[in-house]
Amino acid sequence: MSALQDDFASIVQMVSIICLIVLSVSIILLIIRVLKGPTNADRAVALDAIGVNIMAFAALLAIILVTPNFNDIVLLIGILLFIGTVAIAIYLEKGDLIDTDDN
Amino acid sequence: MENSPNNLIFKTTTVLISFLLLGFSVYLFFSGHNSPGGGFIGGLGTAAALVLMYMAYGFKTVSKVLPINYRILTMTGVLIAILTSAGSFVFGQPFLSHTFTYVHVPLIGKMELATATLFDLGVYLTVVGIALTIILSIAQDRSTSEENTSGQDTYSR
Questions:
Q1: CB contact under 8 A, B143 and A93
Q2: Global pTM?
Q3: Of the candidates B58, B72, B67, which has an alpha carbon nearest to the alpha carbon of residue B128?
Q4: B100: which strand partners?
Q5: What is the mean pLDDT of chain A?
Q6: Is the pLDDT of residue B156 over 50?
Q7: Interchain CB contact of A61 with B (< 8 Å)
Q8: Do A76 and B51 touch (CB under 8 A)?
Q9: Transmembrane residues, as ranges (chain B) (predicted)?
Q10: How far apart are CA B47 and CA B31, in angstroms?
């Protein structure tokens, strides 16, 4: 039983490291999209996807380092990512983020 | 604004997400100095929630709901930080020294009460005030310099 658990733990570690490498490749491709995206909407979508990849990165780091301290970070990145994406969308659509008109 | 976009979904989602974020920032504030969290990141979370409300509902509406002068909030935070730091002089300790104790609260169990939380409250208020002052100043400056030159006082709250 203990040997089985050790095998499982090593398999989880290996799979997590492979997933980190794949996520890194994904983030590099998305950075290329951010840099040379034809329109600003492409850049916004690529930044959103980078944020999702960073959330997965933090979760995988929590698995590899065997600590629960990264779980709050994942939630915080998600919420701030939502706000950032909304801000980019409003900027692309209206030009100013916060309405200061009288009506 | 005549051609304002239809952001009904955004406004409805903001009601949920901003209060979720406010609760989460309070949790981050109280999770304190033993786990990730504290005054600074809690203040940033609160500022993010307030900025989300400003983006969804506009400056006038949120100013009517939350009539807070954020510069006074900043000053209050710095004052709380200084006073709680200098409070250690009363007990003959050096500046910024803190202590903690364990109390037993029913239904929750053993809790750690640290005086660093009081200092963190000052940091929290300062961060909220500074972040919202900066963001609202930039937003009003942009809006007045480009399109809104009708003599509106930008510094009035």
A1: no
A2: 0.79
A3: B72
A4: B114
A5: 87
A6: no
A7: no
A8: no
A9: 12-30, 36-56, 68-91, 121-139
A10: 18
